[in-house]
Every structure is written in structure tokens, then in C-alpha cells.
Write a structure and sequence with these properties.
Elements: E1 2-6, H1 11-22, E2 26-31, H2 34-40, H3 47-51, E3 55-59, H4 65-79, E4 84-87, H5 102-123, E5 134-138, H6 151-170, E6 177-183, E7 186-187, H7 197-202, E8 206-207, H8 208-220, E9 230-233, H9 235-246, H10 249-260
């Protein structure tokens, strides 16, 4: 398969690219910083894939529609087609909303919401008509109930969740599956210096490879073997998701406040 990954220079995106390349798939790693991407593919994991011309890198600012066109052209020129889009690029800003920089908060909305939307819009006509044609959006367990100290990030992941649910139905007639993965906190550069109460109380129990393993598995499944829309990663996220399906909002809010409120 030929797979386009955004935000692929580090974290979940890079870990996913390594897994997919190791399994023999062709991967396009895209990010805003191509120098970082070049360093990333020097990893020995990509050695065989590089020799077999199964790895390309490219610059992609996900909030720029023209940049998506260039990335898609690059994928098709090199690989001939695209089977899977992994919408991974994202930003995280923490802190009480009134005390955090507004420009940073608006940039988060641009990348986490607009970037995912543009990717879903641009790739639909280009995804190969195959049993693997799909879009995987990287969401978060914070899309289950709004979280203090990361309210804007949480809201952006609610957007991703709603978009995924709607397009899962809308794109079915195109033969394209649209799903998301919803991990809780993941140990990565993004969360390295993060100060959030829920992290203090719950800890960070997932690695980027834990999430990459789920994304890789979903990428490789044929569409007829994908029955869910949302895929939680890690036991806490799975418990929270199940609880949200049966418990009233008042109970979810109580649990969330105990975990995340100061």
C-alpha cells in the first residue's frame, strides 16, 4: 500500500511510518520541516525501504490547500496511487484559556481542525479504489468530554471526532473508510514539558509506538474488517469511552473534574 502521513518528522507520525515501512509498505512522510524529515529517514528502520524506493519525504503545511495538492502530486508521481491518508499533524497548547497566547490557540485550531478538514477534502478524489482505501484521523480521548487546561485542544479533537463520524457515512459511497484513533496522554515531544492536572493524576502510560501499532494495524486491515468508527488506545481511554456511552453527562463531568480539575 501507499500511505501519506502528515506530521511525520517525529512522535506518532514517525513511529507509524517506521512500522509501515518495516512491513513493506510505501510511505510518504510529510511535515513543515523537511530538514527534520531528512534526519528522520536516516534511521536504520528505513534502510531497506529507502533502497527499494518505498520512502519519500516532502514539505506540507497542512493549513495550506496548495501544499496538499503538491504533496498528493508527489505521492502519485512516485508511487502511482495513494491508498491511505493518516491525518496526524497536530498542535497542543496547555493552560487556562484567558492566560494563554491567543495566537497560539488560533494556530492550534488551524492545524488540528482546518488541517484535518483540508486533508479529508483533498484526498477523497485521489484515494485508490481498493479494499484498503481509508482516512485515519488522529484524535484523542479528550474528545470524549471537554478537558480543563487543554479546553481548546479538547474542542479541536471534538471537531475531528464529528468530522470523522460524518465522513464515515458520507464517504462510504466512495468506498472510503474514515475512522479515528483516540489515545489518552502519550509520551512524546508534545507532552514532554506539559503541565496538566490530569497528567499529574493519571500519568502518561502510552508511548508513541503504542499508538503507532494501532494505526498500523488499522491501515493494513481491509475495509470489510473495520467495524468501528472510533478506536481508543490504552485501557483508560477504552474505559472512558465505554463509560461515556452509558453514563449521564453529569457523571462524566464529575469523573472528569476529579481527574483533571485543580
Amino acid at each position: 500500500m501507499n500511505i501519506l502521513i502528515t506530521g511525520a518528522s517525529r512522535g506518532i507520525g514517525l513511529a507509524t511510518a517506521k512500522r509501515l515501512a518495516d512491513k513493506g509498505h510505501s510511505v510518504g512522510l510529510f511535515a513543515t520541516n523537511t530538514a527534520t524529515l531528512q534526519d528522520a529517514i536516516e534511521d536504520k528502520t528505513f534502510k531497506k525501504a529507502t533502497k527499494q524506493n518505498r520512502v519519500i519525504i516532502g514539505e506540507l503545511d497542512v493549513v495550506q490547500p496548495d501544499a496538499w495538492d503538491m504533496a498528493i502530486d508527489q505521492m502519485i508521481t512516485h508511487f502511482g496511487s495513494i491508498d491511505v491518508l493518516i491525518n496526524n499533524a497536530g498542535l497542543l497548547v496547555s493552560g487556562a484559556l484567558p492566560s494563554t497566547d491567543l495566537a497560539d490557540q488560533l494556530s492550534l485550531i488551524d492545524v488540528n481542525c482546518k488541517g484535518v478538514l483540508i486533508g479529508c477534502h483533498k484526498l477523497a478524489p485521489h484515494l485508490a479504489n481498493s479494499e484498503h482505501s481509508k482516512i485515519i484521523n488522529v484524535s484523542s480521548a479528550s474528545a470524549i468530554y471537554g478537558q480543563p487546561e487543554v479546553a481548546n485542544y479538547s474542542a479541536s479533537k471534538f471537531f475531528v471526532r464529528g468530522l470523522t463520524e460524518g465522513l464515515n457515512i458520507e464517504y462510504a459511497k466512495l468506498g472510503i473508510k474514515v475512522i479515528d484513533v483516540m489515545p489518552l496522554w502519550v509520551k512524546s515531544d508534545m507532552t514532554k514539558d506539559l503541565e496538566v492536572t490530569s497528567i499529574d493524576r493519571l500519568g502518561i502510560n502510552l508511548s508513541v509506538d503504542d499508538v503507532a501499532k494501532t494505526i498500523c494495524s488499522l491501515s493494513c486491515r481491509t475495509n470489510d474488517r473495520i467495524s468501528e468508527v472510533h478506536y481508543s488506545v490504552g485501557m483508560p481511554a477504552k474505559v472512558i469511552q465505554k463509560l461515556s456511552q452509558v453514563a449521564p453527562d453529569s457523571l462524566i463531568r464529575f469523573v472528569s473534574s476529579k481527574v483533571s480539575a485543580k
